[in-house]
Design goal:
By secondary structure, the protein is mainly alpha-helical. The chain contains five helices and no strands.
């Protein structure tokens, strides 16, 4: 695939596409035990995986550093949501733990890359410095005596 947009060249974007493809092969094979509903988990997994991809693309298209960091952070949150959906499918007995290992490994790689992108684009100046708080007394007199 020839990337026409900058996000298409990102390794994390390509990994997110890999996860979507992996998930598309997983969900048709799921066979839940009788009377166990998995539609909500599979639907949420599909939405969250798409959210990862879309937030990466939108974040990479933003120019302001804190806005980029926010979109990459949202993508990271959606990736961890995907991992939780996979855990739920295992807990419901719809899939074996071994069957989701490849997907979890992809998600771990995606979240690691997104964590680095968030750290790279976060604004350093937005963090508050610790402040000493004093209760009672006359602060101005104490300040003069220092």
């Amino acid at each position: 695939m020839n990337p026409y947009f900058a996000h298409g060249r990102l390794e994390v974007y390509q990994a997110a596409l890999q996860f979507i493809s992996w998930n598309a092969r997983l969900t048709p094979d799921l066979a839940p035990p009788p009377k166990i509903r998995i539609a909500e988990a599979t639907d949420q997994l599909d939405r969250a995986s798409l959210s990862v991809l879309l937030n990466i693309a939108e974040g990479n298209g933003r120019r302001r550093r804190p806005v980029r960091a926010k979109f990459f952070d949202d993508a990271r949150g959606s990736a961890t949501e995907c991992a939780a959906c996979l855990d739920a499918l295992v807990a419901k007995g719809a899939v074996a733990d071994q069957r989701i290992e490849e997907g979890k490994a992809l998600l771990a790689r995606i979240t690691a890359m997104l964590s680095k992108l968030v750290a790279m684009f976060e604004e350093e100046g937005l963090k508050e410095e610790p402040v000493e708080y004093r209760v009672g007394g006359n602060f101005e007199k104490e300040k003069e005596s220092e």
